[in-house]
Design a protein that fits this description.
2 domains, 13 strands, Rossmann fold, alpha/beta, 7-stranded parallel β-sheet, UDP-galactose 4-epimerase, domain 1
Length: 290
């Protein structure tokens, strides 16, 4: 069975491809950063070139597609909205259409940032209310994909961390580097998420591929602030603690607005067998590796 994974060179794609390789013949696409993953066929693909995408799709003839590629930086989406729309919305809907025509499974990764952060924890049935262009683009893609292909699985992903290829990273790597360099790391005490490791996220996505149609939340089981996460990170990975400083969202000017609390209620996924490791367990697994 052939699985086509877009965004294989990114943090989530890299984690997913390695986990999927045990059960699938995996084809992973990348845009600018060539990548080699043992046991995976990787190929360069411009997802904004529909003709190129269609040709590759027909050549591979996948049995399922997991679309993880995105412009996932809220600040970039805010300042370069036309370019990010092409990848986050247009390309996503075109790929969903190809899967609908072929009647094969399609998984799309969305985000907890489709919510405004004022009514957490959020369930799949709650109305979307994005405050940033990135959240807005993902919300538009969700709606258009499900209109085109109701059998698609729309997986809203939380903040994610863990091992990553050399040219990519989760938010964890810059945090660690800042502290090791002896610099100040300001972390929000008033921004709350339900984080998971890349390893747990990959497990959830493969479960969704098998069992889900429509919306599903793949958040973790713990509600934490960025600052609290940083404290656990310092303790478990034995990093210099003096650099961590408590901060508030209002003190940092960013291009994209940030919602205060987009914690997700993922009980629907838990009932299907999604079982993300705790943050502390996941951090402990990374000791000596990051």
């Amino acid at each position: 069975m052939k699985l086509l994974v877009t965004g294989a060179s990114g943090f989530l794609g890299w984690n997913l491809c390695q986990r999927a390789a045990a059960d699938w013949e995996v084809y992973g696409t990348y845009s600018t950063h060539a990548i080699a993953i043992p046991g995976i066929t990787t190929l360069k693909l411009d997802l904004t070139d529909f003709q190129q995408v269609k040709e590759q799709f027909q050549q591979i003839q996948p049995d399922a597609v997991m679309h993880l590629a995105a412009q996932s930086s809220p600040n970039v989406c805010e300042t370069q909205s036309d370019a990010s729309y092409k990848i986050n919305v247009t390309a996503s809907c075109e790929l969903a259409g190809l899967c609908a025509d072929a009647e094969i499974s399609f998984v799309f990764t969305s985000t907890d940032l489709v919510f405004d952060g004022l009514n957490a924890p959020y369930k799949e049935t709650d109305p979307v209310s994005p405050v940033s262009r990135y959240g807005e683009q993902k919300a538009i893609a969700e709606e258009q994909i499900l209109q085109r292909y109701p059998k698609a699985a729309i997986c809203r992903m939380p903040l994610m961390f863990g091992l990553a290829p050399d040219h990519a990273s989760s938010f964890l790597q810059p945090f660690i580097q800042t502290l090791r360099d002896g610099k100040e790391l300001r972390l929000f005490v008033d921004e709350f998420r339900t984080p998971v490791s890349g390893k747990s996220a990959a497990q959830g996505l493969l479960l969704a591929l098998e069992k889900v149609q429509g919306l599903i939340h793949l958040g973790g089981k713990e509600r934490v602030s960025r600052y609290e996460f940083g404290q656990w990170m310092v303790e478990i990975l034995e990093l210099p603690a003096s650099g961590i400083k408590a901060s508030r969202q209002a003190e940092v000017k960013m291009a994209a607005p940030r919602p205060p609390d987009v914690c997700m209620d993922s009980s629907k996924a838990f009932a299907l067998g999604y079982d993300p490791a705790s943050i502390r367990e996941s951090l402990a697994e990374l000791k000596g590796l990051v």
